[in-house]
Amino acid sequence: MSGTVTDPRSHGSGPDAVDSVLGHCARRTGAYAGGVYVLSPDGQMLQLAVLSGISRRIATPWVRVPLPAASPVSDAVRQGGLVWIGSQDELARRYPQLALVLPHPFALVAAPISTGGRTWGGLVLHWSSAHPATLSAQERAVIDDACRRLGPILRQAADSGRVLAGPEPRILSPSRNRAAGPAEAQAAADFAERLPSGCCALDPDGRITFLTTAAAELLGAGIPDLLGARPWEALAWLDNPVAEDRYRAAVLSRRPTSFTARRPPDQWLSFHLYPDASGISVRIVPTSSADAVPPPHLLHPAPAAEPGRATALYHLMHLAATLTEAVGVQDVVERVGDQILPAFGAQALALMAAEEGRLRIIGHHGCSAPLMRRFDAAPLTSDTPAVHVLTTGIPSFFGSFDDLKAAYPPAVLQDDMAAWAFLPLITSGRPVGSLVLAYDRPRAFPAEERSVLTSSAGLIAQALDRARLHDATQQLAHDLQAGLLPRTLPRVPGLDVAARYLPSSYGMDVGGDFYDLIRLDEAAAAATIGDVQGHNVQAATLMGQVRTAVHASAGAPPGEVLARTNRLLTDLDAGLFTSCLYADLDLARHSACLATAGHPPPILRHPDGRTEIVELPPGLLLGIDPAADYPTARIPLLPGAVLVLYTDGLVEAPGTDIEDAIRALAGRLAHARNQPVDALADTLVTGAQHTAARSDDVALLLISPHRTRVPGAR
């Protein structure tokens, strides 16, 4: 796509259709950059599918955005609404970490892409800081229209298994106001050569695409050596934070800017940058000092440059910001891989942790699995560089395999890598692991790069220590939950049952939802389901006590079972309330007697397919009033019927009326005829599994009498 945008109203699907809609939207709103994110199948990651207006290099930190992260696009997708950032001050207030790594003025909008209540991804657009403080009604309408058109495309791709977002985003070619022919291009070059001082052009990725003879002389390098290179990478004296920062400022703000730098030994140069969608025009002017005043129309002048690794420092700053949001160990591994490899030009990394006297590989990027298996679980007494940096706390850098071989004679080259950095992961003065970076070419590892790499390892160590504690807590919570819920349900003649439990997406993943099936005799059973308030160990502990109390009273009339359990809870004074539903199943008489304590109503599908929401006499939540009464109701439960008991996590969602959600659940039950109860249970929880921001547990219990003769049946 170069300057022309096809009409998105034309029929189409897949990547071309997405690109067309994005280009059309950007053109109509005047946005200089945009992107479309696709939500991963597990609903936990947003992957950038297509990008326009800025380079992949600048967008690297945001190619993959975890849905729980604090960012405009993840917030828009989670909350189901548009997020508008109209100024740098607003960005700093709402997203301080993003403002830290992008200290440049621009405006931004993020909007969810959804159909039929299901979110499939997000749309992001950028404008220059000259944009008004608010979106216009016309811009909002264009954005809404683009999201409506993208929704069916993303949904169809997900339904068909077509991949819209690969490992790397598609980059749309910039549009140009006009194209020049060969003669005109030569005339333009002649024109530039006649200008005083020097000038050059950068593409959106920062590479030099044109420069004059005067510019090359001022920069002190030949034209062939500079074409296709980034100035701060080709010229050692420009390899500094300020030069690349001004380039990023020009690209992201779309405003002119300038900076000064000293070319050794004593030549000061002033660089003036003029950006647009196709790249940046740069004027290079000799100046007397770093304090020379730029022309009045130039904005954001920068101070004199100092040596450094601009790209590495930029990514280090973003790594520090993004690691604060990492939760588990795998989350840390993913974020480290996303940030460290592009920041330092490495091709592979391995993250290792000390466990029980061995160095375990807990994550890797760019390494083969067989190679990782060979190095996994090395004893902490072994003579390897990864163990050495862990035990000594001193980083090691090997610019070539010869260097590595000289330090560790037994070393054998087992991959195509040519240089390595072994970094200790130290937190609170103690080593917790090692980070290995591998490069496919020999590398000098200058002092400033070693310093930045070591600092990065310190950030990673802190995040890894927190993540391992989190994972240990999660495992404890899961073990507790598994011990409190029934491992299997009892076999009851004449009854098919199925149960499902899904923990919440947030918190400790342990909560108070429970279910149980109790066999009373050959022709009778009891079923119960409930939800203790909260999502913590206290809620889970109380849930175990409620299950025990129900078991102890099982066989009594349902109202009496709930009344006894209620008195126990009020005596415990736990400060947590519990909803509960108890059903006495009479398989001989094909009926069920039910009582509820503030629990969502059950749903019954009759053998003929007719489905109804069973309205029960109301009962107070357990644990409030010890004298509460729980009336009962009897319903038919014929062979072939299905009784659905569930907790509110299955039907509650932000912005959704719970009664509408219960009716929708009943509709899914009615349409899922001829499914075994196990398959039916999976069908009913599918929506909850794909909910990205599920804030509550989900418990589901299905009960279906079948036509096997039951003793005593009539």
From TrEMBL:
Keywords: ATP-binding, Hydrolase, Kinase, Magnesium, Manganese, Metal-binding, Nucleotide-binding, Phosphoprotein, Protein phosphatase, Transferase. Residues 13-164, 324-474 form the GAF domain. GO terms for molecular function: ATP binding; kinase activity; metal ion binding; protein serine/threonine phosphatase activity. The keyword Metal-binding applies. It is an enzyme of class 3 (hydrolase). Residues 492-705 form the PPM-type phosphatase domain. It holds the Pfam family PAS_4. InterPro entries: Bact_Sigma-Reg, GAF, GAF-like_dom_sf, PAS, PAS-like_dom_sf, PAS_4, PPM-type-like_dom_sf, PPM-type_phosphatase-like_dom. Its EC number is 3.1.3.16. The keyword Kinase applies. It catalyses: O-phospho-L-seryl-[protein] + H2O = L-seryl-[protein] + phosphate. SMART domains: GAF (SM00065), PP2C_SIG (SM00331). Primarily acts as an independent SigF regulator that is sensitive to the osmosensory signal, mediating the cross talk of PknD with the SigF regulon. Possesses both phosphatase and kinase activities. The kinase domain functions as a classic anti-sigma factor-like kinase to phosphorylate the anti-anti-sigma factor domain at the canonical regulatory site, and the phosphatase domain antagonizes this activity. This is protein-serine/threonine phosphatase. It comes from Streptomyces corchorusii (Streptomyces chibaensis).
